[in-house]
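It is worth pausing here to work through a concrete case rather than discussing structure prediction in the abstract. The textbook approach is simple: state the sequence, then state the predicted structure, then interpret. We follow exactly that order.
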Amino acid sequence: MKRANQDPDEKIINGFKHIRHEHESYSTEEMIRRSSEFYHWLDHRRSIREFCDRPVPKEVIENIIKAASTAPSGAHKQPWTFCAVSDPALKSKIREAAEKEEKESYEHRMGERWKNDLAPMATDMHKPFLDIAPWLIIVCKRPYEFAPDGSKINNYYVNESVGIACGMLITAIHQAGLVTLTHTPSPMRFLTQLLGRPENERAFLLLPVGYPNEPVYVPDLKRKGLDEIAVFT
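Step two, the predicted structure:
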């Protein structure tokens, strides 16, 4: 029996308070229109390697990160840290260390097939965007946390959770009218060292964020069609 003073917008499940979720639904026609428009808007997003140094307000970066932080995560542990860097000296150090790893990769780690696959992207070991873009966002994953006694407590589905957050981060950057590029100099240990991050954090992805240079050119690539990426049964 429901108690007379029980709040209809709250419910206790397994000893924890749950709150009523308000969800907005749409007609079939409206769903088709909205989903189609969203697809075409996202399809316009491209990875950009040529940035200008036009400033981006810190508040915009804060909002973008907050949007990414709404991503679902294993047991709601939110195993991520977003490090936003605008300091020119630190950006230069990051570029120097990244290009050192990239040089090693291009000259010794990558096979010819890999380099041939990268050729249409017009990318190489030189990464000037790390200096030029007004912001660098380094996404770190947190495989574990520390209990009050100093013992380690593992997080769940860390790579999956952080990967989803990164996808939402990229979408939020696009929504703000900015551009980015997924950059993964490997290994990335130098990033956590330069940023002074704790031992339970690992650099996962580096995203330069800002405005594109004008003019800017991107490869004339085509994305796979629906019949190549989806199966309906």
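Step three, interpretation. The radius of gyration is 21 Å. The chain has one domain: 48-218.
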